[in-house]
Amino acid sequence: MESRVANPIGAETGDLVNIHLTSANLLTGAAILYLLPILGLLIGAFTGVWASTAYGLAEIYGSIGGAIAGLVVGYAAVIALDRSPSIRRRIMPTITDIVTPNNGTPDVKKVSCCG
Q1: Per-residue confidence of the chain (115 residues) as pLDDT tens digits?
Q2: Cα–Cα distance for residue pair 87/33, rounded to 1 Å
Q3: pTM (2 decimals)?
Q4: Given 8, 31, 70, 112, which is the most exposed site by the fewest CB atoms within 10 A?
Q5: CA–CA separation, 87 vs 92, rounded Å?
Q6: In Å, how far are 8, 29, 87 from 102, measured between CA atoms?
Q7: What is the rounded CA–CA span in Å between residue 69 and residue 97?
Q8: What's the rounded Cα separation, in Å, for the pair 20 and 86?
Q9: Under 8 Å between Cβ of 44 and 71
């Protein structure tokens, strides 16, 4: 598995390493990824109902349009937060230890679930 991680100990490509990610950082990342779009969808749907009622339109069209707009805004917020260096540093895993250094020839057996 490959992932972007902070490398304060100078591990090199091919090294087998341990990484650390606190529960708070994991939950923060999950909240950003999953809750922001859902909140955008709900807020957009309720705002769409309110706006359609204020302009004399059918509530269902306002609700659908507002939900779509809110979902788009929620995903845009996720993308913006993902590209933010300060947020990225807060939720990025960190390499804590080199388990097996890479000696040039990989001697790692790939394990399969099916034999």
Answers
A1: 677 888 899 888 888 889 999 899 889 888 889 999 999 999 999 999 999 999 999 999 999 999 999 999 999 999 999 888 888 888 889 999 988 887 765 555 666 666 5
A2: 12
A3: 0.69
A4: 112
A5: 9
A6: 17, 31, 31
A7: 45
A8: 18
A9: yes
